[in-house]
Chromosomal replication initiator protein DnaA
Amino acid sequence: MTTATSPDIAPRIAARLARTIGPRRYAMWFEQSARFTCDHDQQTLRVAVPSRFIADWIERNFRKQLADAAQQELGQPLEIDLQVTPDHFPDQRAPQAGAQQSDAPDSPTRNNPSSPKPQPPTLPRKTQAARHLRRSLSEFIVGPSNELAHAAACRLADADIEPTGPLFLHGGCGLGKTHLLQGIAKRLFDQQPDARVHYTTGEQFTNDYITAVRANKLDAFRKRIRQLDLLAVDDIHFIANKQATQQEFLHSFDQIELCGARVVLASDSHPKVIKQFSEALVSRCVRGLVVQIAQPDTATRERLIEALAKRRRLAIAPEVVQTLARRTRGSVREIEGTLTKLQAMAAINNPKTATPNVVGHALVHQLFNHDADLAPTRPVRFETVIETVCERLGVDRAEVLGRSRSQLAVLGRTLTIHLTRDLTSMSYPEIARAMGNRNHSTVITAAKRILGQLEANPNTPVPTETQADSLRDLVDDLRQTLRRA
Ligand SMILES: Nc1ncnc2c1ncn2[C@@H]1O[C@H](COP(=O)(O)OP(=O)(O)OP(=O)(O)O)[C@@H](O)[C@H]1O
């Protein structure tokens, strides 16, 4: 929309701008959302827009093209003065409460004098969508397994940085993909309350698309999706075997990217290995940044346990956090599950105390022993036992099977005997033979000694190389690993 106080100049600048940036982007950002006026002395081009968001967007993405278009039309440089004047754009105010989203076409629209007046935007605004977004980027715990994903998410959510392509996050279950997607959407909202941000899942996108087709409202669906500033789609692999949905998604993807919007997708696998993902979609995804999130390492797990426990007001001593971090392998969701169980057990154990939310070593042992008892029992082989023990202690198998009296070799021997007897069906003579043809009474003595120690003094310290707090801890941990093996 152009209004020239100096005749013809502003419309000519606008027309030149439209040619430079292309009709789609012009229609999207200027046609209904910008009014150009040129001072009589032709020193300044004033561009009035309805919101700070549009002003910032134009400032970041089109200032140079605007200045060039003005200079080329006038033969001299002009000051560009961007002004936020919502009163000049009564048509573009937020929808009234209760307004039917699908009733209102989106703005900006094509310049068609016969078309009805533009209606309020229909896309999810902060008040509608924010309540679904629970996670923020600031509460995401960062470690080597996810730091690139987190950095990419922060960059994409930064309204001051122009997006350079889609972001594709992939990784196993419960590792934080949804958290990052929601965090991006939330942060963009916080910076740009006018931003049109949509967080959805592959399944929801499919359902919305099918509903739109059935209700003959495909145009409204397309308008809603294609005029977003950020589209975040979780579990995008859901659309993999759905040809029509993929096709629709592909067009939306192209359209919103063309307009400079941000796109972030998440899936359990790399786009190239998602079965029945169309080649076109794969190539769009890999054009941007594809980042994997891996399982957190022990140090990150410690920080996650601390943060997640704090969120639940669960008090866990640092040394108990360390034990938990070593024993809780797997995803962050599994860590959350462990904390939930501990919280419930703490409440049952201390129902009347003032501190039902305190977790100590005893509770942790109780939990892991309980879990181990519930785990399906699989046959364990002697070879697996000795390998697991040697690996954990960092000691040579030959030393354990030989005559070495080093502290670790002796401990390795005792642990192998104890766990083999406990987890396999081997008799003492069989264990003695497997342990390098030892006398079987020596093996029985070793087995009895460790059993006695575990009963009388489970907190017997162990060498630091074993990374365990006590003998009981070490045995429980090894047993758990072997049961899972
Ligand atoms: N690095 C992290 N910092 C803090 N919380 C985390 C982190 N990673 C995951 N979480 C939390 O763990 C839980 C599971 O994470 P999320 O749902 O994001 O996983 P996901 O990768 O999307 O899993 P799925 O593929 O199963 O949907 C959430 O409560 C999330 O907030």
